[in-house]
Amino acid sequence: MKLLVVGSGGREHAIAKKLLESQGVEQVFVAPGNDGMTLDGLDLVNIGISEHSRLIKFAKENDIAWSFIGPDDALAAGIVDDFNQAGLKAFGPSRLAAELEWSKDFAKEIMVKYGVPTAAYGTFSDFEEAKAYIEKQGAPIVVKADGLALGKGVVVAETVEQAVEAAHDMLLDNKFGDSGARVVIEEFLDGEEFSLFAFVNGDKFYILPTAQDHKRAYDGDKGPNTGGMGAYAPVPHLPKSVVVQSVETIIKPVLKGMIAEGRPYLGVLYAGLILTADGPKVIEFNSRFGDPETQIILPRLTSDFAQNITDILDKKEPTITWLDEGVTLGVVVASEGYPLDYEKGLPLPEKTDGDIITYYAGAKFAENSRALLSNGGRVYMLVTTADTVSAAQEKIYDQLKKQDTTGLFYRTDIGSKAVK
Ligand code: AMP
Ligand code: GLY
């Protein structure tokens, strides 16, 4: 069987690598992918994620059994609908089901309607009304651009002034373009954050190990929000009962709600949660796998990934098994300056072997050689599995110290919350 993965980052590297390791998979294509993936035997296809008709043509001509869609913007653009209309199978939600991610207001409406615990909120397109709401609620308070903003359209404001400024930036100064034409303003939730993922088809779902991302750029959760600088799974200090409660109060009702709304969900559902004093509450839903969480979750899958997804697509009961010991931890290496401006074209260290995996995100071969150069904000990620978080940290950070990371940076405290 031949498969296609759509996307180009570390997440897609991890998905494609795991699919290629599955029995009965002869070839995995990634469109457009990045050159680093070819070191793992993946085949790149030079077609962009928004070129649906070219992707469809490629899938048909190459006998692709099904495609796995990585990025949120492709899903929001209706790539799955287009594939399905062309008679092709794709693992990911339809445009209407993906609205859970591409409109925070829609996600909130669904949560309220189906009783899913989340922060109290208001949605505004008028600045004066937003300002009045902020002043009435007081701080801390959270201001979010309604649409997709690469994880950067959220301001956790400690003061009323900061919140008003954020609303001003989004509604009047168009800082996030159309994504910020409406804002969701919500109650600040206090507690530990974690991510819960599920493979879903309609009302059937299969929960993945819990994960914790590190969204801020620098150590100690300082600096600007990024796509994610490192992660680990499972979260060892999170009681199993919290997962059970999250499934009952969050995953089940939202999937039921999506069916009732005529938007049955297919694909990976990603719930960003905060464990508050009143139990787990939703910060956001994403309609896809997380990046970098995928890179630390999928290495823990011990069953046949391609077979699992085939079964879920066919509405058959999959046999999904996970490593039930130890922790998988990964640290992202990014270009200095990320998430703002950064240089490209810096030489990258050799790919690791053995039990440290290198997943590439922004990597490209030099013009005349197969030397890899940096080509993006997040460049690569090292991932390993060990008995404990601190043992995994030691392995990764020892390896990173041996690498020449000139012009690049990484956080030195990934997983430290779990160690204390
Ligand atoms: P999001 O893009 O919605 O995941 O938000 C980015 C980050 O902002 C989250 O990972 C949280 O750390 C924080 N955040 C978002 N919403 C809230 C909230 N209601 N209360 C506290 N923190 C929040
Ligand atoms: N790791 C955060 C995200 O994928 O949105």
From TrEMBL:
- What is the scientific name of the source organism? Streptococcus sanguinis SK330
Name the cofactor(s): Mn(2+); Mg(2+)
Q: Which residues form the ATP-grasp domain?
A: 108-314
User: What reactions does this protein catalyze?
Assistant: 5-phospho-beta-D-ribosylamine + glycine + ATP = N(1)-(5-phospho-beta-D-ribosyl)glycinamide + ADP + phosphate + H(+)
Family of this protein: Belongs to the GARS family.
One GO term of the biological process aspect:
'de novo' IMP biosynthetic process
Q: What's its top-level EC category?
A: ligase
Query: Which is an annotated Pfam family here?
Result: GARS_A
* Name this polypeptide is given: Phosphoribosylamine--glycine ligase
Its UniProt pathway annotation is: Purine metabolism; IMP biosynthesis via de novo pathway; N(1)-(5-phospho-D-ribosyl)glycinamide from 5-phospho-alpha-D-ribose 1-diphosphate: step 2/2
Key word Nucleotide-binding present in the record? yes
Q: Identify the EC number(s).
A: 6.3.4.13
Q: Does the keyword ATP-binding apply?
A: yes
- Note the coiled coil stretches, chain numbering: none
Q: Which PANTHER family match?
A: PHOSPHORIBOSYLAMINE--GLYCINE LIGASE, PHOSPHORIBOSYLAMINE--GLYCINE LIGASE, CHLOROPLASTIC
Read off the SUPFAM superfamilies from this record: Glutathione synthetase ATP-binding domain-like, PreATP-grasp domain, Rudiment single hybrid motif
HAMAP family cross-referenced by the UniProt entry: GARS
Question: Which keywords describe this protein according to UniProt?
Answer: ATP-binding, Ligase, Manganese, Nucleotide-binding, Purine biosynthesis
**Entry-linked InterPro entries:** ATP-grasp, ATP_grasp_subdomain_1, PreATP-grasp_dom_sf, PRibGlycinamid_synth_ATP-grasp, PRibGlycinamide_synth, PRibGlycinamide_synth_C-dom, PRibGlycinamide_synth_C_sf, PRibGlycinamide_synth_CS
One GO molecular-function entry:
metal ion binding
